[in-house]
Write a structure and sequence with these properties.
- The chain is mostly beta strands.
- 12% of the residues lie in helices and 39% in strands.
- The strands form eight sheets. It has a five-stranded mixed sheet with strand order 1-29-28-25-24, with no helix packed on it. It has a five-stranded mixed sheet with strand order 11-12-13-14-18, with no helix packed on it.
- A hairpin with an 8-residue loop joins strand 31 and strand 32.
- Helix 2 packs antiparallel against helix 3.
- The longest helix is centred in the N-terminal third of the chain and has 17 residues.
- The two termini are 50 Å apart.
Length: 486
Amino acid sequence: MFVVPASQHGVYSPSKFVVDVWLVIMRYLSVLDIIRLGSTCRTLHEFASLRHVWRDALRFQHCFLDQSYPHLRSSTVEDIRHQLKTAARLDHIWTLPSIVPKRLYTFPLDFPGVFQGLKFIPGGTWLVLLFHCRNLNPSRHSNLCLIKPSTRAEFPAASTTLQSEICWLPFDQDSPYKSSRGDDLMLLRTKCNDGSNAFGIMHLNTKIPSITIPLVFRTNVFVRNYAAAGDYVVYGWITSDRRHFLRIMQVNENYDSFRMDVTVEIDCPKGHDGKLRIRYDLRLSGRVPCILLVSTRLMTAYNIPSTVPNDFDENAPPLLTPFWQLRPAAATFGRFVKIIHEGAIVSLYEGQIRFIRPDLDASEPNAYVIEKYNFEPPRPQSSQWPCLFAAQRIFWLSSLPNQKGTTCPWQMAIETTAVPENDHREGRALMDLQETHSSAPSATTRIVQDWDELSGRLCIRSVQSRFTQYPRCRRTVWRVTLVDFV
């Protein structure tokens, strides 16, 4: 039998092309297509394992991850590939009409005290818990716990607890974040008896594991708001003559002191000098680190100065002028629900939920995008009101009748935020936890606690009180349910 050479059919080996050609081809492929292409032969597997390929995919295809988690830029190729694969699977799952979680498991949250907060550490493997208990810590009764739940029988659970000397406030707008070196940090805040504010940098070491608070600093000013991200911490206050000051701090490599500590004044237009509620956000993923100031009538962005002269007057610090501004088309942006770091500002106005996304690095001045969502009825106490906002997801409980005709409180509607303006959707994807192999625990109240985008994991906290007719004998039982989508 005569065999015609492959070259006569016009079929060539991938090695015949230079690597630059394959890099250009892979730039136009999706993450899953790159993975499939790399599994065809050894040569393409080597080309698909190059760092340049996954760095471009992270930058151009999933720019949200590149902006919200800058530590991925310095991660290994395997970590970037795994993260992009998880993000691609989540995007595919969210296009389905119905979602069945891949895994669901529940564990008790037994602690002798008052619940103050529960958050995911970026990555979804660990949880940080804050609770108060006078029996364990009589002096300040503030306890911080690092928990790694057991997902399988062969993986035992791990936890460690720190009894803090300071009574910290509950987790409200604070969440764990990644430093520039990839360490897990979290900013704590409390009010002291003398009226001052105390802040603490908490280092969450998941390798040992251990919890430390290497740095605690105080201020006597009336703090309007604060923010922390990367290596930066910022808080602001208003003087008696209506001047807006900001203190910008940058921690060192050990997180026990400040590498940079400057106080600046920001230039706000008249009528926006701090009379309204103010929030801050640090945008560190752009060309220059900047601070975003958000109020109900104005949004402005200021570049963080790299150097400040040492001989400036404390009463006349350097003045920062905004390079980006946004004013509402109406009288106000509405009531702010949440500010998502490196993402959107979520507001409620005239029955609409709006995701305002500033584009600070755009070539056009004052560029932004607004996404609107309509919910009926638009009331916070309604079952259709979202119970959790994330950068790319919206979660809300929906008491919809199941196939048996009874109300199933474990059904949850999910929506993605990539919806055009003026488009009305009430929930494209419906997650039914009853269809999973694990049985959902019975509880009187369920609270959607947190969502981790890196792992695609949802945390639901359920509470059930025993002996409710006898207040003195009442006991609260907490259980945490983790839902894996990928």
